[in-house]
Each structure stands twice: as structure tokens, then as C-alpha cells.
Amino acid sequence: MRPELLSRVLSLLPQAGRRPELNVYAHMLRDYPQRGGKGIRSELLLASARAHGAQQGTPAWEGALWLAAALELFQNWVLIHDDIEDDSEERRGQPALHRLHGVPLAINAGDGLHAYMWAAVHRAGVPGSMEEFLDMIHRTAEGQHLDLSWVEQRTWTLSEADYLEMVQLKTAYYTVVVPLRLGALAAGAPPAQAFTEAGLALGAAFQIRDDVLNLTGDPTRYGKEIGGDLLEGKRTLIVLHWLAAAPEAQRAAFVEQMRRDRPDKDAAAIAEIHRWLLGSGSVAHAQAFADARAAEGLTLLEGALQGAPDQAAVRELLDAMRALATRDA
Amino acid sequence: MRPELLSRVLSLLPQAGRRPELNVYAHMLRDYPQRGGKGIRSELLLASARAHGAQQGTPAWEGALWLAAALELFQNWVLIHDDIEDDSEERRGQPALHRLHGVPLAINAGDGLHAYMWAAVHRAGVPGSMEEFLDMIHRTAEGQHLDLSWVEQRTWTLSEADYLEMVQLKTAYYTVVVPLRLGALAAGAPPAQAFTEAGLALGAAFQIRDDVLNLTGDPTRYGKEIGGDLLEGKRTLIVLHWLAAAPEAQRAAFVEQMRRDRPDKDAAAIAEIHRWLLGSGSVAHAQAFADARAAEGLTLLEGALQGAPDQAAVRELLDAMRALATRDA
User: Fold this and answer.
1) What percent of chain A is predicted at pLDDT more than 90?
2) What's this model's pTM, rounded to 2 decimal places?
3) In Å, how far is A297's CA from the nearest CA of chain B?
4) Chain-centroid distance, C-alpha B300
5) With 70 as the cut, is the pLDDT of residue B261 above it?
6) Is residue A24 within 8 angstroms of chain B, CB to CB?
7) Which residue of A has its CA nearest to B169?
8) Spatial CA neighbour of B59 closest among B130, B3, B126, B131
9) What local confidence, expressed as pLDDT, does residue A304 receive?
10) Mean of all residue pLDDT scores within chain B
11) A123 to chain B: nearest residue by CA?
């Protein structure tokens, strides 16, 4: 995230404790935010605020900055808990928090950071923003529940529609829909109805792009393990599309690996599945689907922002959204 | 908690989802609140509101009820996460949530419930109450961090003062200090300064009583496993007092068991340690300490409430606090 947001985030968090143990706690809260996340969601919120007429140095801009800080805090506490739920190894190129400090302390640090998120929302003082955050968390938790319960139940008989429902709940609201809405609210404008449909399309495109990068990305630029989604048994559009037409032997080998917990998966078998996926047409299918959804979302968004007061900012926002859906890392 | 609070809590939570998986999610959110917790903290908040003049049927009382519902939601999401952090087996006589659904889904359900707590705080609309909840969560998370890091590091070289600092942060604020303050705020009165010192004394007494019951309680009435604190390696005043004077062989046997993770502990050795503790004077020492702190806290609280508008309610509040510190379950 941009430095002025990071310093806002850090200004809310404890610096040090009265005891050595509480120094560790303070350090844990500050760790993920300082690992250099891209700040995609906060930038989108700020771009939306500018498009809706919030100008730097005004109270509206100040409100937008606190909401952007809150969104970054949301992202960071969710990542701490997600990394435990998925038993991820890395986050932004470093070990996941629970791998440094153990699961109990990491759950607790995530809870602490969650509360500081609400402190930022409160500080923003933007009418309607608390409802947006409540709604966002409810949906994100539902999406996360869907995803985790499929992992837990070893459910692979899922349609592309199932996947899209999960991704909309788990990713699209907090990545696109809510940042667009919060930017409007910060500027004192009612959020356009069309933000929801546009954001769901763009959010799905964003997540599918992430799924593609997880298989094909540059390990030095992509912050997570390449192939990590396979190790974590994640449902992706790519895998569901491939499964529907895979040779029976490949399908059986896949399901056998996915039946195992992460530590029991066979690295060689996973590497082979990874190669099958790359060799199938499923990555291209998923990317084409994402491109179509992105184009659809951009058209809707362009329409929704036609009357917005700052059209230069609207163009920047649309460019940034387009770049996100086609990013390389 | 009282039925009218439970129905308020449940009215905020999802009833059922659009998919079978989301029915499970809704069920998980509603599970702990429906297990019949005693509602100690919400009753204290309501008693404080009455003492400060909030009358049933008024907007002030309505605000107090929503804050009480929020406090119950706080207690319940914290318990879901605590049970994971401590790897507890039971909660209120039934398996802990993560033992029913696995750790990932239970972490996520706790996060969902956390957000609904803020919905209840928001619904109450009582000025200053959001700050109270923020402050309460920050302190509780710090106390939990202390407790968990001692478990993690196998730290037993702790003084009674260390234990008390942990318990004040982890238990006293959310159990006594903040309910007293929120009751005043709901009634439109500034919380008395002395609530903090009174609440810290009473909260410590409450927790020490809980530690005593965990060793000596009636298994049919106490909602957790008797001896569970030993299996979880919890620091208590009883254990720290006993360790300071225990025969070397007993001390060594204790430390050897506490070095092990819960599943590796030897049940017979733990049962023997349990007997040593019961046979030592340490339970009586801890109970006497708790009684003294309770008396001190009650005196401070009586003084702080001398000028409160409803003195009948003040007497009820003091009686309830006295009962808590000497309860049997």
C-alpha cells in the first residue's frame, strides 16, 4: 500500500508493549501490513473517491484515507486467518504468521487486527461505511465457508457456477464492489447500483487471474508459492474445467492426491498434475472467461461513472481496473 | 443469557443460507449462543444500566439491551477462538465447535460472529460504546497473548503478579470493568473512574474462582472439563503458588508433563498432579486471595455507586457481584 496509508495503519497499532511478550504481540500486528502488499483495494477506493469528487486536503479525502486504511487492515487480518485455515506456507515472500509464531498466537493477532480495522472505520466517520464493512465481512465469511467446506469434504463435483458463487462472495465484494461503494460514500455520493454487477464481474476476473498466476506466475514476483493452490486443494475454474474432460487415469490420480491432507500429498504427483493442467486447454479457457468478465465489468463501470464529477480520475480508475485483470503478478 | 437477549442475538444472525453449505455456516454462528451460557456479563451490564437510571421500555433501556447482546456476541466469538487456541474439548457440556467442524471452519465462524458483534454495537447507538468495545478487545487480546505465549514457551517461572496482570487484561476488563461502564453509558451517565479499580479486583476474584472450580467443581454443573486447565497447561494462581513450595520430585513431574503437548500428556500423571494440588494449601490460598480481592472490589463499587439514581438496583448489582465471586459453578 502507499506509504501514507501504511503510516496511518501503523499509527493505530500498538508500537510496543509493557512486557517483552507484548512486544511480540505488537510486532505480530504490524508484520503483515509492513510486508509490502500492493494495496489494490485501497487504491481502488481512493480512485473511486477522486472520481466522485473527493479532493486531497478536504475532510472527504481524509475520510477516504481512513476507510482505505481500514480496508488494508481488513485484508491483513483476513490473510492471517486464511493462512491458518489453508495452512499456507508463505505470505508475500515470507513465512506465514502462524508458521513463525504458532497457530494460537496467530489466531489471536488476527482478532486484534480485526478490532483495529473497526477503529479505522470509526475514525473515518463516513456515514454508511460501517454498514458496508459489516456487509463485506458477512459475505466474505460466507464465501470462505463455502471454499473451506469443499476442502474439508473433499468435494470436487462442482460446477463452474458453484465456483463463481464462491468467488463472488469470497473475493469480489471486498476487492471491487465495496471499495467502489466506499469511495463514493467518502465523497458524499450515493454508490451507483451498477457497482455491484460491475464489481462482481471484475472481482471474478481478478480472482481467476490470480488462480492462473498461481499455476503460471513468476515465482520471484508472485508473493505466494507457485502451485500452492494445488497443495492446498483449492477449487479453481481451471481445475474444475480440466476435471470435466480429463483422462480417467489423470482424474483418479488427482482425486487421490486431493483426498490427502497437505503434508501427506506427494510432491512428484502434484508436480505432474501441475504439468497436466498447464498442458490442457483449461488455463486458456479460464483466462478467456476472465477476460470476457473483465470486459463486461469495465463496460458496466464506465457506464456507471459517466456522470461522475472528475472524469480524469474515472479514466485512471478504469485503467487501473483493466491492468488488474491482466496483471502478471 | 436471558431469553430476550438470546432472541436479540439470534435476530442479527443468518437463519439459513442459499446453499446447504451456508446452512452449516448459519448453524455454526448460532450454536454457542444457544448453548445456554449464564449471561454473567450481559446481566452485569443491565444491572449497571438500571442502577444508573435506565428504565425498561425507554430508548436508554433499548440501547442497554443491544449492548448486552453485543457483549454476549463478544463472549461467544472469543470462546470459539479460545477453544481452538487452547484445543479445548468441551464448551458448555458439548464438544467445542472446532471438534465438530474442524479448525478452519471454526476460525471463520468466529470471525463472522465477531462482525455481528459490531452490528449489535452499531444498533445500540450509544455514544462512546464503540470506543469501549475497541478498548475491551485490545486488552483482552493482549491478555490472551500473554497467556498463550506462556503456554507456547513453556514458561513457568512466573510470579503471582505476572498471573494477575494477565488475568486483569484477559478477563477483568470484559467481565466486569466494561460491563459496568457500558451500563452507565447506556443510561447516559459518565462511568465512574472507580469502576476500573473495582472491576479489576472483582474480575481477578472471578477468574481465580473459575480456576478453583476447574480443579474442585461439580462436573455435572461446571460447563468445562474438571482438570481441563492442567491438560491445557494453564497458568493459575493455584499452580504458581504450589510450584513455589512443591517438593522437587513433584515439581519435576509437573514440568515434565507441561513440556508435552496436550495429546501427549499422561492422564495418570495429570490425575496425580491434580491430587497434589488438591492436597496442598494452594487452593485455599488462591480462594482466600480471591475473597480478599472480591471484598475490596465490592467496597470500591459500593462507594462508586453511592450517588446512583436507583439504589434498589445498586443493591441487586452488588449482590450479584458477591454471588459471582463465591459461585459453585
Assistant:
1) 82
2) 0.93
3) 25
4) 21
5) yes
6) yes
7) A22
8) B126
9) 96
10) 93
11) B131
Of the candidates B85, B104, B145, the beta carbon closest to that of A21 is on B145
Which residues of chain B does A79 touch, with a Cβ-Cβ cutoff of 8 Å? none
Beta strands in chain A (DSSP E): 90-91, 94-95
Chain B (38-97) residues lying within 8 Å, Cβ to Cβ, of chain A: 78, 81, 84-86
Coil/strand/helix, residue A77: helix
DSSP codes, B243-308: HTT--HHHHHHHHHHHTS-GGGS-HHHHHHHHHHHHHSSHHHHHHHHHHHHHHHHHHHHHHHTTT-
Chain B residues touching A149 at Cβ < 8 A: 21, 24-25, 105
Residue A220 scores a pLDDT above 80 = no
Residue at B217: amino acid letter: G
Cβ count near A221 (within 10 Å): 11
pLDDT bracket for residue B8 (50, 70, 90): very high
Q: Which three cell numbers stand for residue A231?
A: 497443495
- Grid look-up 480429463 returns A246
Quick one: closest CA in A to B143, which residue?
A22
- B295's CB contacts (< 8 A; 6+ apart) are none
Q: What is the DSSP string of B170-220?
A: IIIIIIIIHHHHHHHHHTT-PPPTHHHHHHHHHHHHHHHHHHHHHHHS-TT
Burial (0-12, 13-18, 19+ Cβ within 10 Å), B322: middle
Using CA atoms, how far apart are residues A282 and B261, in angstroms rounded to an integer? 45
ipTM over 0.85: yes
Distance CA B151, CA B153 (A): 6
